[in-house]
Each structure stands twice: as structure tokens, then as C-alpha cells.
Amino acid sequence: MGGLDYGADPDRIAAIAGQVKHVADRGVEVAVVVGGGNIYRGLAGAAEGMDRATGDYMGMLATVLNALALQDALEKVGAVTRVQSAITISEVAEPYIRRKAMRHLEHGRVVIFAAGTGNPFFTTDTAAALRALEMRAEAILMAKNGVEGVMDADPKANPGARLIAEISHREALERDLRVMDSTALSLCMDNKLPIHVFNTDDEGNIDRIVCGERVGTVVSTE
Q1: Which of 42, 67, 47, 49 has the alpha carbon at shortest distance from 57?
Q2: What pTM, to 2 d.p., does this model score?
């Protein structure tokens, strides 16, 4: 979204694509789960009072738009990509097939997962946790906008909020720190999947995390 009120900022998308391509060039298998808030915010008024499931499906379609925009940006910098959608849109994306996605990753392609889990009442946080487990990922890298990681208070309301360098899944849930939604966080906790929460504004952060540097907050098992 960049500095826009809603929509897609081409420069921001290009910057993300450059980071992902750099990491993929190291031989790291990279899959991306995209949200849709940047588009859905513009529809919030129309969605007010709408049936929850209908609104969630609209949000899923918004993630497909973002997935295609990211795919285009990645291919412009030379990456080989595949978009897999949890909702069947055969003209623009493959259907989500776990084994096919894993083969794409093994062949060095960047896989972009769109349409969340394909079900209403689940967020893209849950989709990220679910796809990470299905792909046997070693970690989730959770990009935040303008926030260095998990804070001990809302930095907008409390300027003295401090960064938490390391925390367990259970403590994050108990303290309601909003790392991700509780369904997703519970899924990561039950499967001992670490989460690296970092500021996406620093374009070197993804590479640093992949190289083993401590960046932002690490959420892991106790």
C-alpha cells in the first residue's frame, strides 16, 4: 500500500519483489502468503453490515489481486513464479495442490499462495501458518509495516513501548500481544513452528533472517 490510503504502490511491490528474489537466488525455497487489507480497506464501507462469509470471500479475492501484482513484479526481476489460489480461478492461477507446490519450490520457483485458506472465518495469518506446515517450512517470516517486531504495548498509543526480542508462542497468546491471530498462533505453537516478526521497511531484513541474524522478534517454543 505504501503511502496510499488503499490500493497498491508499484514501488513498494517492486521493493518486496527484489528482497524475495535476492533470497531465492541463495537457493532458499521461498513461498509467500499475501493479505488483502490494502485493497479491502477501500471496500470497508460497502462491506459494512454485510454477511461475514461474503465479506471474507471479498477479502480472499483481494489477495488474488495482490498475488498477481507480486508475481508480475517478481518476474520483472527475473524470478520464476507460480500463483496457487485456494479458490479456483483457473484463468489466472493454479489451484492449490500441496504436492505440486512442493515440486515448484524444489525447482527453485517462488510460490505465491492466494485466497487465504479458501474458507471464510479464517485470516491470512492462519493461511500462512497452514501453508508453512504443509510445505514443511523451517520458519515463518512475518513482515510488519513500520514496526520492528513484537512490542510490549501498542506503539501508537504508548510511545514508550519496547521491543520484545524473544517470546514463546504460549506467552504471546496469554499476553494477547497480537503477533498474529490466535488460531494461527496456536497452530504454530502446537507444531513448534518459529515465527520471525520483522520490519519490512528495512530492505535487508529478510536476507539477514535467512542468514541467521537476530532481527526483530523470534516467537518460538519454550
Answers
A1: 47
A2: 0.94
